[in-house]
Amino acid sequence: MAIPFVSAHILPGKGIGDGIIHPILGMDHLFAMLAVGILSIHLKKSWQLPLTFVSVMVGGAIAAVYGLGIPTVELGIAFSVMFLGLAIIFAKRIPFVIAVICTGIFGFFHGHAHGTEMSIIVQPMLYMLGFVLSTISLHLTGIGIGYYSDKLSKYAVPTIGVCVMLLGVLFLI
Known about the structure:
Largest sheet: none
Number of strands: 0
């Protein structure tokens, strides 16, 4: 009997390796986490948004493990990609506190999706460590992309924002 895949998420396995690859293979997670890094560098607060995202993501994972159900978690994740793309486009005009609050909310949705899977795997703490390390790596990669894209062209960052936003729209559809 084949086990169906749910949404864009891979089925979790045994531990840290699966936790590491989940955010990379889940396109919704990948682009949201890169976008957090890109946005953070353009708000001139390169560590605060990623730290908020990762901290609240862990809280969302723990909440899911303890049974907090969120029926719209996939919608929240898709919306996070779209919003983060828009935020990159308009980074200079978004109040930092709004960016932090939204990043925290989105981190909770992403963490909840990871946490839902943690309850069915063999080594949940290693899985969590894996997705936390992967998320931090993706944020750092996003920071690098954001930093160097500014040096490429004044149109690079808005173009990245438009692409991320359009991916978010596709995830919503």
